[in-house]
Structures are given as C-alpha cells and as structure tokens.
Amino acid sequence: EEDSLSPFIRLQEKKKQARLMQKALEVKEEAFKERMKVITCRWRDLHAKEAQLKTYMEKSGRTLKENDKMRIQALKKASKERERKIQKESELLRAKRELEALRNKHQKLSNKVQKYSIFHKYLEDVVKISQFEEIQEVIWRYKTLVRVHKDLLQAQLEHKEMSDQAKVLLDQYTAEKEAEILQCKNELVQLQLRFDQAQSDILPWETCWADIQNTTAKRSLKLGTIKIAILSLFQ
C-alpha cells in the first residue's frame, strides 16, 4: 500500500510544484507586461522629447548659421578694412620714400651741376678759341669720337676673338693629325712585326714541308717495292 501511494504522492508534489511554477510564471509575466507598459510609455515620451529636441536643434542650427554668417561677414568686412588701411599706410610709406629719394637725387644733381660748372666754363672758352660755334657742337664731336673709338675697340676685339678661334681650330686640327700620324706609325710598326714574324715562321714550315715531301717519296718508293714484290709472288 505504501508502494502504491508513493507515486501518487510524488505526482501530487509534481503537480503542486507545477502549479507553483505556473503561478510564479504568471506573476513574472504580469510584472513583465507592467514593465513593458512602463517602457512603452517611456519610449513614447523619449520619442516626443527627441522630436522636441530635433525641432530645437534645427531652430538653434538656423540661428547659429545666421549668427555665424553675420559674424563671418563682419570678420570679412573688418579684414578688408584692415587690409585697406595697411595698403594705404604702405602706399603712404612708399610715397614718402619716393619723395625722400627724389629729394636726395635733386640734391645730388644740384651738387653735380655745381661741381661741373667749371667744365661748362671750360667748354665756353674752347668754343671761343676753336672752329665750333656752340658748346653742343663740341659735345656732338666728342660723342662721335667716342663712338668711333668704341667701334674700333669692338672691331679689334672681334678680330682678336676670330684670331684666337682660328688658332684654337688650327691647334685642334694639328693635334688630330699628329694623333692620326702616330696611330699610323704604330700600325706600321705592328705590321712590320707581324711581317717579320711571318718571315721567321716560313723557314720551319718550309723545312717541315720538305720533310713531308721526303717522307712521302720514301713511302711511295716503299709502296712501289711492295707492289712489285706482291706481283712477283702472285706470278
């Protein structure tokens, strides 16, 4: 009887455990549903906040873009004004330098005129005692002589350059011909040496040829003797 009751008891315990597990599962499922509801509400709120944040960001972005655009325009305008101011200052400084340079040049020219005034007086005295009627004619004659002298110097220089070039060409041609003559002499010496060597090699070869001919004659005589002996034996 105890053996028959034991499976029943175990079955009842298993059913009880199954009911407890089912109840716990239902509790967990209910808690999961509640949690999903809370998450869904939070997700919906999050989407709403995200939409609001996106709208705010778009408005802020447009505002920032407008502000950046205005700031960039202001910076460009200030930069252009600064560049224009620097350019004006640079032009003013350059004008001052040019004015100072012109003043220095004028002073130098004045000093030079004052320094060379004695030459003007000298030219006036030359005109008085010469065939020229004006100082400008003396200057023209001087410039003509200077130009002729310059042309003569240029002609002499060109003639000297042509002479130097001709000398260089002549030296080059002479060196080339001397090298060719030396090469021909060397080749002639080599040919003479080869000829002498050939002449010296002829005598041994002639001796060898004579020996070959003597040997051939002896062998021919011996061959004839053998043929006669064979013929005699055959007969």
UniProtKB/TrEMBL annotation:
Q: Which organism is it from?
A: Sagittarius serpentarius
The gene designation is Ccdc42
- Ligase in keyword set: no
Q: Which residues form the DUF4200 domain?
A: 11-128
* GO CC, one annotated term: cytoskeleton
Q: Keyword annotations for this protein?
A: Coiled coil
GO BP terms: namely:
spermatid development
Residues folding into a coiled coil are 72-112, 152-201
InterPro entries, A to Z: CFAP_domain-containing (IPR051147), DUF4200 (IPR025252)
Q: What is this protein called?
A: CCD42 protein
